[in-house]
């Protein structure tokens, strides 16, 4: 009996499951932030207030991104998320003023879904270019809400750019966790207080909408990847001709995807209206978050968990610059330097010398910028989320895999 030869190549360990890799990345990120806080003294980087602001700011981005996920998994690119969010803000403010916060959620969903329906009619039924239709819906949303605001809100507020104040949800904290996290944060222990501060922001002053928003991530994953409905909808985005040959009504599922997309984007608009710091409609309040949600979806590789990570990143940077301004954003440059070093070490361990050199070179450049300035001007700090969006998308672009036929025109019977 011949002896089995030992493998000549390098031994490869078992690959970690997805949840373990995600947990490891989060742990490394928190450790890097803790080191940055210790060396720079910028405690706002891991404070509970920053984490709480990040949760409120990431929520509309997350919901808009989930809307884009449902639409693009069905094969329809939805650049009109911004317009559907705008429609959702008006619908939420109108319904919320009349009947309260739960009606505001329903109003936002309905108005956003109406925008989604228009996008579906244009792209699915009439085969209009998806980008053209999306841009048109955004422009239409701006015009329609401005007209409706002048028609409905002016008699009450005498201001066509805002609604009367709406009733918000009652805030609540998770008993035990919020008090314990606050006590540990006040002790200012390295790593321990940093973790406590971030955790405290996640369990303090929550609203039902925050719970709903985070719950929609696993719900979307389950529906899209573990149900017959989700399999059929995703098949329409990967190969609609093959799906049609198996008896799937491709038009119907594309309509479902885009309608759900519009409803989720409208719910994101409602999240802006019901933000405890706003509680009302304000012209221009979406601020491009529909586009940032689309970027978060792309960063997440068209997967719910990755989308949540991208939304958290953008919301965190936005919350940090709003709470602490240019000095905290300046400290983030130090964080970026440490991340570049960690990435370089990772590639060295894999004997990938070119990516390691690129990562190390980027770290040197970022540290040079950090060393040469004392603070980031507020005018530039306010654009930090958009800059992070561009950098992250540029880095992640080579690993992305969109649905195969997203954005392509489909006509019934093409496979005949």
From TrEMBL:
This is ABC transporter permease. Its main location: membrane. The chain crosses the membrane at residues 21-41, 53-70, 77-97, 103-128, 135-156, 206-225, 255-274, 294-317, 329-347, 353-373. It holds the Pfam family BPD_transp_2. Keywords: Cell membrane, Membrane, Transmembrane, Transmembrane helix. InterPro entries: ABC_transp_permease. It is a multi-pass membrane protein. It is found in: Cell membrane. It comes from the Bacteria.
